Amino acid sequence: MAAPAPERLLILGGTAEGRALAAAAEARFGRLLTVISALAGRTRTPVLPAGCVRIGGFGGAAGLAAYLREDGIGLLIDATHPFATRISAHACEAAARTGTPHLALVRPPWRLAPGDRWIDAATTADAAAAIPAGAGRVFLTVGARALAPFAGRDDLWFLVRLVDPPAAPIPLARHRLICARGPFAEEDERALLRDHRIDCVVTRASGGAATAAKLAAARALGLPVVMVRRPPAPPGERAASIEDALAWIERHLEAH
Questions:
Q1: Is residue 178 part of a domain?
Q2: DSSP at 123
Q3: What is the pLDDT of residues 145-177, one digit of tens each?
Q4: Which end of the chain is more exposed for a tag (fewer CB within 10 A), N or C?
Q5: What distances in angstroms separate CA 198 from CA 131, 190, 195, 219, one per listed residue?
Q6: What pLDDT does residue 3 have?
Q7: Structurally, how many domains does the chain consist of?
């Protein structure tokens, strides 16, 4: 008798967690599972995960649902960035349309530590308005798509860090662009803030270890951090760790 075909897992990735999950799932489940990672294609030179890789969008929830059906996907895990709300919504809808078991791998948020001076902001527009008076030089790490709300702050100088050079000109009157990919070391982040005489850090509440060093550096230097609030996590089943996600996969494999 022929062995059963392996279950097919689609990971919506592009994050460190997505890569870690793909590698761990390949290692743990072997021939029982075919792992396919989908990357949006926004990063020019992405770090590719283990297993099969698909790069590019699906065409909304309907396109993702069609892909799940046509490619025989049996399990769907959303391991995208906490602020990638559109693809997470599409994943929920596509899973519901097709009856595909669906899990959101949600990275734990950063937590306040003694000495932190965080300023909460509901949106990037609120963050632009919340930069403290007297903070003339700002380290801005909110992603290329979230720079527009800061365009009106021509009273400020911005140090902008992105993974890749943006496709369009940065809409800031006074700025310097640096391109780098984490993880970053706290010592290097402190030096960056000192060398550019930064008065305030503006970032999104993304969580994760790769970019947490800037918060430790700001804490050490006594700098305020304007923190754009994380959007609500997608509905449905969630996992907070790679191990929890692997346990979810194992339960579904055993059920089949």
A1: yes
A2: S
A3: 899 999 999 999 999 999 989 988 999 999 999
A4: N
A5: 12, 10, 8, 13
A6: 46
A7: 2
